[in-house]
Amino acid sequence: MCGLRTALFAASAARLAVDDASLDVCGSGAAIVIGTSFGEMPAFVDMAEAWHRGGWGRPEPRIAAQAPASQLGVAAAHELGAAGEVITLGTACAAGNYALGYGFDLITLGEADVAVAGGADSVNRFTHAGFHRIGALAADVCRPFDMHRDGILPGEGGVALVLEALEHAQSRGARIYAEMLGYGMTCDAKHPVAPDVDSIARCFALAHRRAGVSPQEIDYVCAHGTGTKTNDLVEARAMHAVFGEKPPPVNSIKSMLGHTMGAASGFGAVACALSVSLGFLPPTINHQVTDPEFADLDLVVNRSRNSAVRVAQNNGFAFGGNNAVTLFGSVR
């Protein structure tokens, strides 16, 4: 297995996931699906620095070999010894949900009995500099939906979930956290970085239809909630467009984890599965004053809340207009 940081996050998360599932996929046809925003971006940073110092030229082969993002899925597959389909998806900050949707399709189409799906990204200079240049970095902490929110805080990590057909999980006596009910995907096709209310609302509605649930059945929304002025406002407007005047309780775990880029919606999926399994809503921390724009949202702030969750919605949006929403529920 390669020793690169983001690949190590992916491989470690995959190992932790199958161990938690008491599942050995070595030699099996289990699929590996990993989402990412930047892959092994530090390798590209190293190449750029070398060119800056010494002028244009052929990159050092050792560094160039580290660059392909495909290594994330391969690293996880090597760690587990899985012999099924392996793919890395580069759909930016919605990539974790894209990976889960891809794994969901493999299971429901009968192309795999098990899929290990999630995301991974690592902090690097390129990411930090890019968000700084567009004025999207928070000065101190990430505080989604707060009147004084001023941007994101980059985070890093890897996340993976084990997806199985229900019959497969029950036959081996697996501990089931939640059922993945379905997903929806849309593309804004309008602006490189600005989210679009209508496209996001369509994504919500598509996910609900595919999962066979109505907006009124959803008990919790794990928001994309980056903490930027624009993203939080657009997401709230999309929720009102679909859920009406009183959307379900909402939180953003980015207030606690930072923005883990391609892993972000994978961590959101974990939060949703645990909310279904354990009956609680995680909080949005660092909250001080609710922005009046969100007065009609039921924000879970600073402290978790005990609550039965039958259906949870996990939002993921990304630059390029990539939107992906996954839905989780108690086993039906």
From TrEMBL:
Lineage summary: Bacteria, Bacillati, Actinomycetota, Actinomycetes, Kitasatosporales
CDD domains referenced in this protein's UniProt entry, alphabetically: KAS_I_II (cd00834)
Ketosynthase family 3 (KS3) domain boundaries: 1-330
PROSITE patterns: KS3_1, KS3_2
Pfam family, one: Ketoacyl-synt_C
Family of the protein in this entry: Belongs to the thiolase-like superfamily. Beta-ketoacyl-ACP synthases family.
GO BP field: fatty acid biosynthetic process
Protein name: 3-oxoacyl-ACP synthase
Keyword Transferase attributed: yes
Keyword line: Acyltransferase, Transferase
Gene Ontology terms for molecular function: 3-oxoacyl-[acyl-carrier-protein] synthase activity
Natural source organism: Wenjunlia tyrosinilytica
Segments crossing the lipid bilayer: none
Matches recorded under InterPro entries: Beta-ketoacyl_synthase, Ketoacyl_synth_AS, Ketoacyl_synth_C, Ketoacyl_synth_N, PKS_Beta-ketoAc_synthase_dom, Thiolase-like
